[in-house]
Amino acid sequence: MLLKKSNVMNWNEFKTQLIENPGLHLQFEFAKNQKVSPTFHITEIKQANITAVDCGGKMNTWTEVILQLWEPNTTEIGRSMQVSKAMSIIDLVEKTLPLNPNSIVKIEFGNDLFETRQMHPQDFEIINDELIVKLVADKTQCKAIGRGESCGTPKPKVKITDLQNSCCSPETGCC
Question: Which of 40, 17, 24 is nearest to 110 (CA)?
């Protein structure tokens, strides 16, 4: 059963899914049919305030909550993190660092076969006793083009009167 389908999930949406499924085992799928080892640890939760200027010259600000996962080198028999355990870690973090509920959520993960990267939770799926968080790659984007503006330095506008007074004409070979 798929629970959530979205391009970008915020912290409140992510946390709500966890709160609603405390008895399930938490699992992360980072590629098709590839899951983080069930012996993973949540090593840290980061909150990053981002301030950037895009190629169109506009300043942008947003906040991200980044949940970092780690697979130990040795397999721990019988260990699988329940959602309630993940929530206890989140509660511990939020006692010290209040997390912005509207922040973009990213999951940071890597192992010997998968380069460390930050991914977005795309949706949740419940299969048997597992709450599976389906992850998708974090893609780059051009915010200026997304706003319908030009990418890079704005092109100067040429007035028709400037063209009429120009020394350049088709006969001169300059254009």
Answer: 40
